[in-house]
Design goal:
alpha/beta, Trna Endonuclease, Chain: A, domain 1, 5 strands, 29% strand
Length: 112
Amino acid sequence: MRHWYYQTLLQDYYESRGFTAQVEARVADTTFDLLVIDKLANRLAIEIATSLPYEEINAQKAIASGVERVLFVCEAELMEPLQRKIAAAIEGRPGPRPGFKLIDDYLLNGKE
């Protein structure tokens, strides 16, 4: 339930700022929780992490997908372990380095 709520929140956030935002968007052989596309067709793939299992696989697929940017969004208690887990999973792999953002950044102030 939380995951769906965060997807909807982020979709609304980006669409209200003029971006196209697709929930459960497929790119290459992976499906992203949210795919944000700007007016120049640059793609930001967002993975919403509400728990740690499988996030290393999501990271590997995300950087291999060909999207321009990858962002993991999570709650505060997951941030540090998520960053460590993903760094280990993608070490030495080519592709964009993922960014990390707290869901509270969207909830509390609505600023990017």
